[in-house]
Structure formats: C-alpha cells, structure tokens
Give the backbone structure.
Amino acid sequence: MSLSFQILGQPFADNACYVRVEPGQSVHRILFDCGQHCLDSLNIREIMAVDHLCFSHFHLDHLSGFDAFLRVNYQRESKPVHIWGPESTIEIIHHRLQGVTWDRIEKPAAPWILHEIHESEVITAECYPDDGFQEISNYTEEPFHGILFEDEKYTLSGAIMDHRIPTIAYRVTEAGSFNIIPDELKRLGLSPGPWLNQLKDHDIPDSHALEIQGKTYSIGELRALLLSESPGESLGYVTDLRYTQDSISELVDLFEGCDTIVSESTYADEEKDLADRHFHLTASEAGEIAKRAKAKRLILFHLSKRYEQSGATELLSQAQTVFPNTCFPEWWELDPEN
C-alpha cells in the first residue's frame, strides 16, 4: 500500500486529513485543511515536508491551525509551499502572511505558490519570505478541467461545491504500477535481469530496441507481453457542502471508483432541514455519495457537537444503511459510556 492517510483532530472539533503517497523511494505529502490543533498529532518533520496544503474553504474551523503550519514552513530553503483553495485564496493567504512582523528571515528561501480555483481557470501567484511576503508576483492563469496537479507519481484533482460560498472537494490518485507477469517471462524463456526495469520506464519509447540473450526485441513488444498494470490507490476528501443534484453529480464524477472517501457527516437524517439551512450533509447523504461513486470505503468526520453525548452512533448507522462499508476514523473513541 503506497497511499496512506490520517484523519487529524478530535471527533467533535476541527478536522483535517493528511495523506502520504509513497510510490517508491520518494514520499509526497498532502494536507487537506488545517483547523485548530489538527497538526498536534503530526511529527514536525512531516509538517515541514508537506508538498500541498489544500483548503476546502476559509471558515475558521478549517483555517485556524494555519499559524502552526506557517511557523515551521515560512523559510524552506528549496522546496516551495503550494497552497490551494477556492476564489480569493491568493488575497486571504497573502494577508495571513503579511499579518506577521518578520524579523528572522536571514537567507533566500523557496517561494510560496498560491493557487485559487475558479469554475474555468486556476489563478496562480507567488510570494517570497525574502521580503517578508510583501509582494505578489508571477500571476498566471491556466484552464481548469478538474486536474490541479499531475506528475508521474500522482494526480491531485478538484471540484467546486456549494457551501453558500465556494468550497473545494479534492481527490488524490497515485499513478498505476506495472508488474512483470512471471508466467509470460517463463514462456518466452527469458531470464530476469536489469532489463526489466527498462520495460517499466515509460520515458523509454516503445520503438527502442533491447537485446536479451542474443536476440533483439522492441520494448513495446515486450511490454505488451510481459507487463500488467495495477491501478493506483485513491482518496476523496469533501466537507462543508449542501446536497444538490448538480453539485452531487459533479462530486460523484470526481470520486468515481475511489478506494476511500473521507466525508463530512454533520447532521442526522431527521435534521435534514437544518443540514440544508447550514449547507451541510446528513449521514445518509454522505452514504449516498459513496454508493453512487462506487467507492470501496467511506470514513465519516466533521461531526456536529450536538451528537457528542450519543457518540454519534445514529450518524454511523444511518450512513451504513445506505453504504455498509462506512466507519469513523479507527483511532476515535466514540463510546458515550466511557
């Protein structure tokens, strides 16, 4: 398993989600939201190595832990800090950075790269620790068709939801892996060796010739015979949205086939009117999203404090009625008797 995650924060308090993608020797880290005390359970070295901090929106329960993140990351030497969020992200984060009197920036540091997601484009700008984050520069605009970031290791995607204000749902999907089919290797009479690594390296074109045991093959020919592809693991993250047909259809498309969906479950079904009024999901609505997306597992978080005395058992039961493979984060202790 090369995609792992941790739900941060306590059951009836601010929550976030921390994801590690480990496709080989490298590790890529993504943090979804940054509420108060959400970073307390992470090692400081993990926080300092986050590649992307992805905000759903900027209500305080999703933003109020940002100062702790800033404190350990403001002066990275070479690795940029990427911040993602809905419209006004550049302005909001820039103001947060300027809200500090900077007195200990002693050498050049990597930029903070701020991305704000709009319906049809992503606007990106940079600011630097060197000048105390005074200036915003290098504005660019790129068309937005769902994918926010992509490399050979993983893809970060997003969609805009409705919480009276825009809020972003995210998906991270690791790249598929290629495996050698042992029976085919044996059938061809080929001995394993370093040449197998060249088959998996798709920077090498199919037309490239490869000599093995005195015989010449094209890499494309061998790939067709010897490689099988396993899809990468995936995680969807969504919180603070109202269940409407248009937005949920888009969300189901984003989460199609996800291994795990991490979703808010703020209200019980009998308080559907309250959920709609505050632009949140009920437990059954979270289950319905996972069911329609054909996900493998649903994890509920971001629970209303009104269920603290009951341990939120009704939320779990209602979601499981729609989508049986639903649970709370494993480390949460929700037994109201304890």
